[in-house]
Amino acid sequence: MSVLDLARAEIRALVPYSSARMEATGGALLLNANESAWAPFGDAGMDCHRYPDPQPAALVERLATLYAVRPAQVLVGRGSDEAIDLLVRAFCRAGEDAILVQPPTFGMYAVCARVQNARVIEVPLAADFALDADALLAAVTPAVKLVFVCAPNNPTGAGISLEAVERLAQRLAGRALLVVDEAYVEFADGGSAASLLDRYEHLAVLRTLSKAWALAGARLGCLLAQPEVVALLRRILPPYPLPRPCVAAALEALSPAGQVAARERIGVVRVERARMAAALGAMAGVRAVLPSQANFLAVRFEDAGAAYRRLFEAGIVVRDVRRYPGLADALRITVGTPRENDRVLAVLGGGL
Ligand SMILES: *Cc1c(COP(=O)(O)O)cnc(C)c1O
């Protein structure tokens, strides 16, 4: 069985839109795409009058090197959010198929599924928010095409070991595509599931430049998977998804100097995460700080509403995650600069 057997037959049979830039590359005089012959005012050499490369080779290659995969295993889109949407649309037949998620977790998996009219099967995480592989596998019916695992998990911050991901991949073989969302993996102790791609054809890994790479505003993320899965999703990816200025910003951020800067900032976040966890954990009014492998902390309060308001009145906005199962007393606080974190501690330390 091929992993493509899990995908929608219509998508596998679809003849994709063929854009001008796909049909002919190269050439000195481009009169095939109805673009303006002139660069826009203030273009600064970006060539924004030209449609961008659908999958810019330089960016794909740099990402492939960064993630230690082959270029054919990389699909770049507008944030990993776009990859989630493409996966659901390619694999789930409306009104028939399902995805499986483990709440409390990132909300976009369920939203994308509902837009596609795919069912959302929810199997709660274990009481300590660890992956519950047995419960998860027991819920995998033939209708389940995609299993989403968020590692480290948002909004709890809990990491999942690579061994646990691999055991799950082994047990899902031939049944569903395992999608491991690694939006925060750069902040974690363990490695990436991308290292398992060549062993499990039904594995996909989501990575993003929005968090550790500080490019949330450029909207760039990728799906790492088998070349066949990448090719399948390219069929339904819009023709020119990646704006030239965003690609240019990403190439700068991923340059050797940019990588040094990013690694430095990741180090700061990890140190600050530990400092914040210790300081918050010792505070009156704080019940617990959940262990985090990400760039945020989920914090349980005696009165989370009061803590939220107190921070808000001081001009500090954190995420109220009380609507998530198991987190009815919690706020999610992103790790900021050391000075920003000091402000959080000062405001909350003033008494809850
Ligand atoms: C932030 C986040 C994303 C979204 O990333 P984009 O690349 O900005 O779309 C994906 N998954 C999780 C778990 C996130 O927290």
From TrEMBL:
Chemical reaction(s) catalysed: L-histidinol phosphate + 2-oxoglutarate = 3-(imidazol-4-yl)-2-oxopropyl phosphate + L-glutamate
Cofactor annotation: pyridoxal 5'-phosphate
Residues of the Aminotransferase class I/classII large domain: 44-347
Keywords per UniProt: Amino-acid biosynthesis, Aminotransferase, Histidine biosynthesis, Pyridoxal phosphate, Transferase
UniProt GO molecular function: histidinol-phosphate transaminase activity
EC number: 2.6.1.9
Pfam families: Aminotran_1_2
Pathway: Amino-acid biosynthesis; L-histidine biosynthesis; L-histidine from 5-phospho-alpha-D-ribose 1-diphosphate: step 7/9
Residues the record lists as N6-(pyridoxal phosphate)lysine modifications: 211
Subunit structure and binding partners: Homodimer.
Family of this protein: Belongs to the class-II pyridoxal-phosphate-dependent aminotransferase family. Histidinol-phosphate aminotransferase subfamily.
Name of this protein: Histidinol-phosphate aminotransferase
